[in-house]
Amino acid sequence: MGKELFYCPQCKSRFKEPILLCPKCGGVVDVVVEEKDWKPRGTGLWRYESMLPEFKVKISLGEACTPLIRSKWYAHVLGIDIWFKDESRNPTGSMFDRVSALIASHILSEGHNKVITASDGNMGASLLAYLAGTNVKVKVIVPRNVDVGKKAQMELYGGEIEVYGEYLDEAVNYASKLASTNNYYNATVEVNPLGYVALKTIAYEIYEQIGFPDTIIVPAASGTTAYAIYKGFKDLVSLGLIDRVPRITIVQTPPYPTIAWEKHGTIEAYTSSQAIVGLTYRNPPLKKVVADIIEETLGEVIVVSIEEVYESAIELARKEGLLVEPASAATLAGLKKARNLGENVIVILTGSGLKMLATYLEARKGKIIYHVPTKAMILRILDEEGELHGYAIWRRLEGRITPQTVYQHLSELRKRGLVEMEIKNRRKVYRLTPKGRQVLELLKQIEG
Asked: How far apart are CA 220 and CA 222, in angstroms?
């Protein structure tokens, strides 16, 4: 079943199944488009059908064609033209609806009925929405630090959700393993080239909306979005519509600003155990490729602190009326620190803040402000409460993981001597050990 849709531009190898890197030469795999032609017509993702692979089935929920909103406040402060490309206006609230429209079309065109994707929220929810009402079964692998609001969105769409690993790359690797052993179609954005092909349409739209900007600021974890926007503008160069690619600047956050490390080496000032959901990927396969893109386009890699991200999210809502998720607000934090912007700047906002209201409310209450590794979260909860039953700890985590996973973490923390257990009134209660308090204090010092 299926034609060889995927190919390696370097060694010309072809593949039926989606794969990001060529196993023969290591090149980034692309998607076959018979003849690209600039003939935008209609609305939505399929407005750019002449630039996309051809499928028998074309799925759409009205994605893409998102607005480019001219900044009022920041343009005045910085004295340049600033535009927000607001991807939160997509049907499920994120730019991944572009991806799901293309990938769902491929899935249904080729007759796949079992699909798997790794996601820290947005892609999982999006794919479930786009395959709703079909006979396709979707399994979503999420890391333990998935946001409770995004997890609830996926559950409402009716997906099979499995929690695996602390970070997204662990979930991605696990999903790829399950795909190869259980005959799943792998829809993971970080693995499937159709993901970045769909996201290229952001570049097409920017060109139609504003022409040629000086700089585009993109949030980056795996670097897929930055790579996609670069490739989209490269398409426009090859068609003779523009003569070069705009400056691509990416923004990363702790604890793993890996593309920044690739370009500049370790940035000690931003080492942290805290993490922003959507911006944490420990070993992205495209890190060198994206670092080279930044070099080629004379862009920057900007690393911002967790505090700067949350401050920017609140500021963006109050100054511009745009409520976005923290991963999106990172681009605004990066805008403030950029050294070379030019006169016309596009700031990419990837997803809606309405999905993460619980996170913002926690921040205001001064409780668990950031998404940190689960074991560290449990230590902090016990530090605040003194001692708790396992179920009470799970309630404090607000459903981020299953009760069984909480007990697994508690068992591992006991083996390390960080938590102790006692039977009280026939129930197990847990508290920090002196060693656990020392570890927690050390974490606080590291995080500043």
From this structure: 6
Residue-wise pLDDT for 310-365, tens only, equals: 889 999 999 999 999 999 999 999 999 999 899 999 999 999 999 888 777 766 65
Residues 6 or more apart in contact with residue 318 via CB below 8 angstroms:
none
b/e 328-361 (16+ beta carbons within 10 angstroms → b) = bbbbbbbbeebeebeebbbbbbbbbbebbeebbe
- Which candidate, 92, 197, 189, places its Cα nearest to that of 140? 189
Tell me: pLDDT of 369 over 50: no
With beta carbons less than 8 A apart as the criterion, state whether 290 and 259 touch.
yes
Domain with CATH 3.40.50.1100 in the chain: 68-92+194-356
Closest CA to 294 of 326, 332, 338: 338
Q: What percent of the chain has pLDDT over 70?
A: 92
Q: How far apart are CA 344 and CA 325, in angstroms?
A: 24
pTM for this predicted structure:
0.81
The CATH number given to 373-447 is: 1.10.10.10
For the chain, where do the domains classified as CATH 1.10.10.10 start and end? Answer: 373-447
CATH class of residue range 68-92+194-356: alpha beta
> Residues 83, 71: contact at Cβ < 8 Å?
yes
